[in-house]
Amino acid sequence: MTDKTAGQTAAPVPSDHIMGVYARAPLAFERGEGSRLYTADGEAYLDCMAGIAVTALGHGHPKLVQAVKDQAEKLWHTSNVFRIPNQEKLAELLTRHTFADVCFFTNSGAEAIECAIKTARKHHWANGQPERIDIIGFDGSFHGRTIAAIFAANNPSYVEGFGPPPPGFIGAKFGDIEGLKALMGPTTAAILLEPVQGEGGARSWTEAQLKEIRQLCDETGVLLIYDEIQCGLGRTGKLFAYEWADGAANPDIMAVAKALGGGFPVGACLATAEAAKGMTPGSHGSTYGGNPLAMAVGLASVEELVKPELLAHVREVAGYFSQQLSGLKDRFPEVVLDIRGKGLLIGVKLATPNREFMQHARDEKLLIAGGGDNCVRLLPPLTLSLEEAREAIAKLERACETARAKAKAAAA
């Protein structure tokens, strides 16, 4: 093999050597602190994306940084051939605070979804019903980028070009309970949904709807899978979004990730013992999943995220955002059409193109995320202060003014 770099001065890898699957913004950040990101030349941006709901404790959180340092000096990886003490501690912590009895640790949310689907199908196989393989998902969902995950969500833009749909995935309409009932039958294994959709435009299922779906699953022996990869771990003001239904809509299986590692790649599939009865030795596995380094960071992250004072702070800041964004909607009806979401998973449906609005926000040194149905999402760190929330609203107001002026100029 020829070394094309021989005799050359080392240089950054040019972008044309990276597979072109991202429409990247023309920004690069050198460091982060709390709710701020900084470019190499020192420009500060208020981060209301948090790496798409990942850096829930902000950038450079001292407890997470110390956890990485301490563990990196001791042991990174052993594989799941051996016991991993912090894996056991994190599993105990997660099960103590949720419906679940057992956990399987992964490297990503998509892998957690894969495990959830396999767990549901294997449950029915263990019960002598191998024909029950169908997973019913909903329009507007996003469950990750694996083959199973994209077809479980059935978003046309994500499945195009990836071959025929694999068997066992059925699409339902968001919010249509009667339509869901009509799709269920003797081959239904599980219903898969996000209590609050992220990518799909921050649409929320009501507590009443979740309770009705839970009852439907109980009556038919179908398992209920929640994807709380984005809406979980404090994002809605409770540790998990399903808790808003006061115990009447608990899942059988749940996928989590994103905030679980605060920026370090780690996910988990949580399940009741009954739902996971088919997951016996050899039925699933992961080389990296649950490794000592990931578990040290995950444990440090969850120990912070379960604190009642943090969840109370999320509810307070979310209430402020809800009030102020409703005001912006009233003042800029030609720009803002609707405010959606729950807690600090906030969707703003726009009348103007969302990617243009994201640029207007970046011009104000504010980072926000895109979303389906022409929405933008605010997904700030859960530690965002009220003062920083006020700053974000001021920046959004100026972005709205720019968008309105541009729309008026285009119409003239």
Fold topology:
Layout: E1 31-33, E2 36-38, E3 44-47, H1 50-53, H2 62-72, H3 85-96, E4 102-106, H4 109-126, E5 134-138, H5 147-153, H6 156-159, E6 169-172, H7 177-183, E7 188-193, H8 207-220, E8 223-227, E9 253-256, E10 267-271, H9 292-305, H10 308-331, E11 336-342, E12 345-350, H11 354-363, E13 366-367, E14 369-371, E15 375-378, H12 386-411
Parallel strand pairs: 3-13, 5-6, 5-7, 7-8, 8-9
Antiparallel strand pairs: 1-2, 2-3, 4-10, 9-10, 11-12, 12-15, 14-15
Helix pairs in contact: 2-9, 3-9, 10-12, 11-12
What does this structure look like?
By secondary structure, the protein is α/β, with parallel strands linked by helices. The chain is 37% helix and 16% strand. It is globular and about 65 Å long. The termini are far apart. The model is unreliable at 1-13 (pLDDT under 50).
Question: Could you tell me how far the N terminus lies from the C terminus, measured between alpha carbons in angstroms?
Answer: 60 Å
The CATH topology of the largest domain turns out to be Aspartate Aminotransferase, domain 2
Shape: globular
Strand segment count: 15
